Amino acid sequence: MNNIREIVSNYVLPNNPTLYRSKNDISDPRIGDYLFTHNDSETCIKEVNAVLLSVPQDLGVARNGGRTGAALAPEAIKKVLYKLTPYSGTVNFFEKIGFYDAGTIQTDNLTLEESQAIQENVVSGLLNEGYYPIIIGGGHEIGYPNGAALGCSFESIGILNFDAHTDVRPLIDNRLGHSGSPFRQIIERKDVNIEGSAFVEFGIQPFAAAESHCDYVKRIGGRIMNYTDIRREGFEISFDNALYRTSENTDTTYISFDIDAICSAFAPGVSAPATIGFTADEFLLATEKAGTHEKVRLVDFVEMNPLYDIDNRTAKLVALGITSYLVGLSKRF
Fold first, then answer.
1. pLDDT class for 45, splitting at 50, 70, 90?
2. What is the pLDDT of residue 44?
3. In angstroms, how far is CA 57 from the centroid of its own chain?
4. Separation of first and last alpha carbons in the chain
5. Fewer CB in a 10 Å sphere around the end CB: N or C, the chain?
6. Residue closest to 267 by CA, chosen among 312, 300, 228
7. DSSP string of 255-281?
8. How many distinct structural domains can be found in the chain?
């Protein structure tokens, strides 16, 4: 774990142990016990594979005219995550993989662009050392440095955007990125190799995406899998098809889980809530499939907004999504 600390040392604030209070029950260990109350030799039974990184950022949401608050999400999510057990009912993921919380990207008093540059550098470092980063946002503006880091670390990448919106808006004044522009920024970077055919928009809802933005995706050869078509064809087969398309001819795949793709009955605490959307069970199925898939190397969870949550319902769901991904990832090792 020393190399992780070296990668993040100048840019990341350490974990906040006050988010977790151990019950000190060795027969009932929680994720927080592994991360905080055990020493380094016990924290990860196996060599570290998965690294959690928090990005408390929503300047891009504000630029995009959205409601802010997503910067508070990482702590809200981790407070719930630390209390969960690593045992799914059939699998204890700590028996197969090592999981490490690397801390929180420093964003205070930085511009969005400065913060994104730091994030890209840290994520690139983790990828190049062979880790599987799990990034918690924050608004969807954190997707740009994630995708850029992956694209600069591998010859070819695929991207699956699990989202109600396309998030390929133009930059403001042709220079300022925001929460609605991350995938356009990734696609148009000269040093990122992504074929349009390896870009899938999954779950785009009716009346939630401009025709011009959908035309952009189609023009570059990307695939839009609309929510209504997914409902008609079935969630699982549709998600499998999206995974296939983003991984068939690529070295690796990045999946971005925007929580506003989930129906607000299950996830009220988001930046842009949706009346319709995927169920909690469908989201958890998707995150476990992402973990299991051999090409998926990087995931993020974005747009959770604690200011609008109800009884921590959304934070709890995202925490379960992270553990489901870890269960899936454990099946690779």
1. very low
2. 46
3. 13
4. 18
5. C
6. 312
7. EEEEGGGBBTTT---BSS-BSS-B-HH
8. 1
Write out the two tokens for 188.
């148009």
Q: Please choose, from the candidates 138, 116, 169, the residue with its C-alpha nearest in 3D space to the C-alpha of residue 61.
A: 138
């907004």: which residue's tokens? 305
Residue 148 maps to which CATH number? 3.40.800.10
Instruction: State how far the Cα of 284 lies from the Cα of 214, in Å rounded to an integer.
Output: 27
From the list 268, 225, 264, 261, the residue with the least C-alpha distance to 243 is: 225
Q: How far is CA 99 from CA 40, 55, 66, 283, 318, in A?
A: 11, 18, 33, 21, 17
DSSP string over 93-141? GGGT-EEEEEEEE--TT--HHHHHHHHHHHHHHHHHTT-EEEEEESSGG
What pLDDT sits at residue 93?
95
Predicted confidence (pLDDT) per residue in 309-331, tens digit: 999 999 999 999 999 999 999 99
pTM given for the model: 0.97
Please list the residues that pair with 262 across neighbouring strands: 278
pLDDT at 42 over 50: no
- Write out the residue range of the structural domain in which residue 99 sits: 2-330
Q: How far, in Å, CA of 127 to CA of 186, rounded?
A: 17
- Name the average pLDDT for the chain: 95
Burial class (CB within 10 angstroms; exposed 0-12, middle 13-18, buried 19+) of 179: buried
pLDDT tens-digit readout, 254-310: 999 999 999 999 999 999 999 999 999 999 999 999 999 999 999 999 999 999 999
